[in-house]
UniProtKB/TrEMBL annotation:
Name of this chain's protein: ABC transporter permease
Record-linked InterPro entries: MetI-like, MetI-like_sf
Organism: Benzoatithermus flavus
Family to which this protein belongs: Belongs to the binding-protein-dependent transport system permease family.
TM spans (from-to): 9-27, 100-119, 131-157, 177-194, 231-257, 277-303
Location of this chain's protein in the cell: Cell membrane
A Pfam match: BPD_transp_1
Membrane topology: Multi-pass membrane protein
């Protein structure tokens, strides 16, 4: 198992190295373009060339790449062109906001989706199973901007119960988290519930479950002790992979509700052409995607004895 984990970790490092090189190649090859992004579109060629000389951009490409990687490993991503502040300060603040949003979503979504998925899988083909499956498919099929628009129209303009934005301009207020969290839970819980339902239904029809039931073991004990653990292997990997989606895939929700998180930061950086901020956000998003896959593989090995002892 340790050998498999080491291989997964080595592959994660290799992927990060390749992605960082490709990222630097895309954004830093056109030196005059970089200077234009920093100095503005109205800067002259002479001003750009002087800036390139002062900032070491006339050195060999590989030397600049190695220096950039070294600074990135220390958390130094340069200065944001738009926000006029160090990228790392801006980045960690926005990551903390998205982390809080993700924590609230997970705290609701995971118990809800697992409970509904297990109930549906235990009674495959029943009315309860059909209702849960129908609700899961409908909510997952509705994109975030559509459900956000509907919820705002209902709870903000019609009932006037909730605020329409989550900018937290007057400090943190939990009530401003309600709509963003609800939109994300509605969109994501159905997918995890369907995965849990399929896994639970498969486990309930397996031979060892039938044998345990025929031996006269209580149904509750069969489900909790034997079925549930094996049924949660596939949902576990799916839930871990949702970290990547919650980090970089919440752009629509954060922009819609003006929530100052990592997704909105990516949107602002891409819209303004903030090159150093784009590089930092891309590296962080790729790292989370690769690391979540690594954690998912480790968790799958721990939960599945066939892989653990192979």
């Amino acid at each position: 198992m340790l050998l498999l984990a080491a291989r997964r970790f080595a592959s994660m490092l290799l992927i990060m190295a390749v992605i960082s090189f490709v990222l630097f190649l895309i954004f830093e090859t056109d030196k005059l373009g970089v200077a234009g992004k920093v100095l503005g579109p109205y800067s002259s060629v002479q001003q750009r060339e002087l800036w390139l000389e002062q900032n070491g951009y006339n050195r060999p490409f590989l030397v600049r790449y190695a220096e950039w990687v070294g600074h990135a490993l220390q958390g130094d991503f340069g200065q944001s062109v738009r926000f006029k502040t160090p990228v790392n300060v801006l980045l960690w603040d926005r990551l903390a906001n998205t982390g809080l949003l993700a924590l609230c979503v997970f705290a609701i979504m995971i118990p809800l989706s697992l409970l509904l998925g297990v109930l549906a899988g235990m009674r495959e083909g029943s009315i309860l199973d059909r209702i849960i499956s129908f609700v899961s498919i409908v909510t997952t099929s509705v994109p975030e901007f559509a459900s956000a628009t509907f919820l705002v129209a209902l709870f903000v303009f019609k009932l006037r119960w909730l605020p329409g934005t989550s900018s937290m301009t007057g400090g943190f207020h939990w009530i401003e988290m309600v709509l963003p969290v609800t939109v994300l839970v509605l969109y994501d819980f159905g997918y995890v519930a369907r995965m849990t339902r399929a896994s639970m239904a498969e486990v309930m029809t397996s031979q060892y479950i039938r044998t345990a039931i025929l031996k006269g073991l209580p149904r509750r004990r069969v489900i909790v002790t034997h079925a549930l653990r094996n049924a949660l292997i596939a949902p576990f990997t799916v839930i871990v992979l949702q970290l990547n989606w919650l980090l970089s895939g919440v752009i629509v929700v954060e922009v819609f509700f003006a929530y100052k998180g990592f997704g909105k930061l990516i949107y602002d950086a891409a819209t303004f052409g903030d090159i150093y901020l784009i590089e930092a956000c891309t590296l962080v998003a790729v790292f989370v995607a690769v690391f979540s896959q690594f954690v998912s593989d480790l968790g799958y090995m721990l939960l599945n004895p066939r892989i653990r002892f192979r």
